[in-house]
Amino acid sequence: MIRISSQQIFSGGISRMQDVNSNLVKTQEQISTGKKVNRPSDDPVAAARILKLNQEVKRIETYERNANLADNRIKQEESTLASAVDIIQRVRELTVQAGSGSLSANDRQSISAELKERLGQLANIANTRDASGEYIFSGFQGSTPAFAKDDFGAWKYQGDEGQRVLEIDDGVTVPISDHGKGIFVNVPAAVSVVGSDDGTGQPANGFVSGLELVAPKDLKEAFSAATPNVPNDFTISVGPGGVLSITAIDAEGNPTALDAADDPLDLTPSPAPLVGEEFQLAGIRLTVNDAVDGDEFTLGISDKQSIFGTIEKLIAGLDSIDKATPKSSAEYDALIAESLTNLDNGQESIILKQTELGGRLNAIESTSSFLEDSGLYTKEIRSQLQDVDYAEAISNLSFQSFVLQAAQQSFAQISRLSLFDRL
To answer: Which PANTHER family match (predicted)?
Structure first.
């Protein structure tokens, strides 16, 4: 016979009710929090996996925010450049209008006035700020306006050549800015007479007319295949009897005589051209007019021209050239032709950047899609480990409540059993 003391009965009953009550409280906590693992002791293995999955979700959310920021920044730049293209197109239309031979001086002044307005609009667009107030085309100098007027009233670039990048996934970065120098300033310029001098610092007597690029290609690339020094400019010198001699200036500023004897490109025609005769020089057609012995003309083929400088030069020409002489008329025609080419080059520069921005947006979109899929998969696995099944939990709660109630009632009955009740 096993003897069971009253103390054992009471201890066992209380312990059993505490266990049942503990399970009941745990189930209530799961239902209230929606999680079946609320502390590591609930399920150490699942808790460790949930911790790693939480870290992965945070990582994905951080990259998703970065991708969204990059998307917004690039779309803002894309929209800004589209506005710049519209302005340049309007400037081009005005330039074509200015080239009409029927315009009066007042008409040219009216065109000049609108060009000044368009120039200001272009400057405002180039100085666009992002949501944080930084100038988007200033490189790393976000607090500095990209373009500002210098002491002479010309628009000059004020930023640096930095490019900001943002990480949108592990090892995946995307540029989120472009400096204005590469977009608006370093634009290939039209082939033009950039200066004329007779060697004494005085303007040349003659002028160049009919300047036209008849072999549109990269002149420097063509030269590099045939000459040791790639020319940047040409100097056309007028000698006795109006005979023209041509000297090429290389990238280091050193003159190199080019003729049929040592240059396969045959830059100096034979016989040598004369003043008043049309000739071709490396795919460029031109005529030197009214020049005398000692006159020199520098022909630029590798220059850069900012879009602002192109418009400013056009405005200055409309305001100052009167077309009263053949020389001024030729200068005016050359100005219009150069401006049209430079504006086309400027548009092309911006459109190329827009194309590049489109590629970045595609990369962001694909990365964002991958992050979204990864996030959903990670959260699904975490949910399986962590989230409570409410139907099961409520059923358990009802059962545990019943068990606790039964335990309490049975304990109440057992606790009244005593031999003293039989005496």
So the answer is: FLAGELLAR HOOK-ASSOCIATED PROTEIN 3, FLAGELLIN
Backbone angles phi, psi at 34, to 5 degrees: 80, 10
Query: In the prediction, which pLDDT does 411 show?
Result: 59
- Segments of the chain scoring below 50 in pLDDT: 226, 258-266, 420, 423
Q: Which of 262, 259, 283, 278 is nearest to 270 (CA)?
A: 259
DSSP reduced 3-state for 293: coil
Is residue 165 within 8 A of residue 143, CB to CB? The reply is no
Is 229 in contact with 251 (CB distance < 8 Å)? yes
**Which of 276, 264, 351, 408 lies closest to 86, judged by CA?**
351
User: pTM for this one?
Assistant: 0.72
- Domain residues of the chain, as ranges? 1-34+401-423, 38-189+304-387, 192-302
**Residues 109, 113, 119, 120: what is their CA dihedral angle, to the nearest 10 degrees?**
160
Q: Which amino acid is located at 242 in the chain?
A: G
DSSP string for 21-86: HHHHHHHHHHHHHSBS--SGGG-HHHHHHHHHHHHHHHHHHHHHHHHHHHHHHHHHHHHHHHHHHH
38-189+304-387 topology per CATH? f41 fragment of flagellin, N-terminal domain (1.20.1330)
